Amino acid sequence: MKLGRIVGTVVSTKKDPKIEGLRLYLVQDLSLDLAERDSFVVAADAMGAGVGEVVLYASGSSARQTDVTNGRPVDAVVMAIVDEMSMSGDLLYRKVPPFPAEK
Q1: Residue 56: pLDDT above 70?
Q2: What CA–CA distance (Å, rounded) separates 72 from 89?
Q3: pTM for this predicted structure
């Protein structure tokens, strides 16, 4: 798994039938301190994520192991939306607005 931020969308009206119905995003790689890296991937969305969200994505053969991408010709998939990240007790990231449980 890798950490990334969804920075855009990819629209393709003509495509292989096996990827019809998949939402495609541009995902920019992030460092541990959430700094943007120069690398990015086009990833199919399996979670209902949106532009601007910090996500976990998988690539290679692992990208075809979600219910949404099983048997489809994808090389990257958004498989989790990050709510919070911490390291050594320090909060690195928290999604805003607060989680429903915190209301």
Answers
A1: yes
A2: 39
A3: 0.87
